[in-house]
Amino acid sequence: MPRARTKIPDPPDGGILETALHIGAGSVSMMIAQRNAAGTLAPVDFLEQPAPLARDIFRLGNVNAHTTERIVAIIAGFQKSLAELGLDPHDLTRAAATNILSEARNHEAFINRIRIACGLKVAAIDDGEMTRLIYLKTRRRLRHLPAMRRETTLVVHVGPGNTRALLFENGCITRYTSYRLGTHRTREAVEASHTEGPALLRLIREHGYGNLAQMRFDYSDMQIDGIVCIGYEIQSVATSLIRDGINCPVAALRDFTASAAGLSDVELVKQYQLDYQTAEALLPALEINLAVAETLKLDTVHIPASEYEQGLLHDLLVSREIGGAFHEDVLRSARILARRYQSDPSHGEHVGNICARFFDELADLHQLSAHDGLLLKVAAILHEVGTYVSPRAHHKHSEYLILNSEVFGLDRLDVTIVGQIARYHRHAVPSLDHPGYAALGVDDRIRVCKLAALLRVADALERTHAQRVSQIEIIRDSGKLRLRLPGVADAVVERLAMASKADLFEQVFGLTVVIEDQS
After folding, report:
1. How far is CA 1 from the centre of its chain?
2. Range of the structural domain that residue 60 is part of
3. C-alpha span between 18 and 33 (Å, rounded)
């Protein structure tokens, strides 16, 4: 059944209206929200209409013309609503598409069609931002589940194409894994069997066996105390599953799944007030979540009763702003990766702290964002992971390992930037002769140059790997950046290192780096 407008209670007067559009796996949705002076978002209006994007992608390998034009028509209708509110229909705060869109052979043509027809630049959500969005949903759960702050909880997001798991220990993320097992991907994989009822559930379980076995192995060393199941389909039927406003016994989930398997898609639509796209993916969603809970030998699961899509749109508006605990979780993930490749942790941390000092002190010079500062610190922690391969040319090995790894909370561009910063922590400076650097846009190449320049200077001050430099006095005058190192009686090692590493800083910022004698 089609879903139309949901009117949300009026927010307080004042503030700025912001809009988020999401082209999802089974629907297109838009939220209008008001941001007050404190930066808090209050929803004003929510619109949603179904569209079979995931069905096309996993059945056909592309988005067919009929679906494309339906999505164009839905967006045009949303834009008309914006115009009626006096808002610019072509100036949305965020316009994003599900990350499975990248699996469509014609994804670029699809995005171009929307740009031409609707005047909107739509970008597909990548895996890095998807983890940020799951993180935001999970942090909201912490308010309702105090046990997550002291226990080991696995947050499982069964999406249209993939299942992601975030492990929280005492309220902090300590592990992140991803599996090629999703609701719509599974639906299309088993559709040709024409099986129904219990046989269909067995087929879904067998289809996911390899991924479930991998998950069992990935968390075999952990005692999981609880599980939070997040996802569009399972949250759509949450009110029918949860018993006490919070939890759902696994036995009840099993019974509900068996009962749903006996209904047709039409009956699911009528009984649970779903649209057909959600109804088609409901059984795989239920069975995958059930299988995960049983694999981890849990008796109860927590399923948020909140509206999945409204929460996603809200988070799209704030996902690029989050810091604080999120930054700490990103850095924790980087440290875990550094340990995997046996990188010297004290050296990476100390270089990161020196980088942070320079980043803060020279903010007016580099004019970069707090997110860029996070990327710099991640690069500092990881800049020597390449020694795991070989000490020779280890900066190039570092780039390769970083580019082929995942750091929680960082999207693919972020990881690319981090890899490039680490690549240039020693030896050659950035050059268009280097393919990885040349592939970046102009603005991102400038970011790499600025951040790599700071890393090189910081790394020169930690040349001994002995954390000799604990204090730094930074003075700018007469085209020079003068550094005083209280507590370092003889800085000859640092001067020698700076002579080979400060070249990029001078090229980028026009300042010669000088380490002054202690008076």
Report:
1. 31
2. 5-124
3. 5
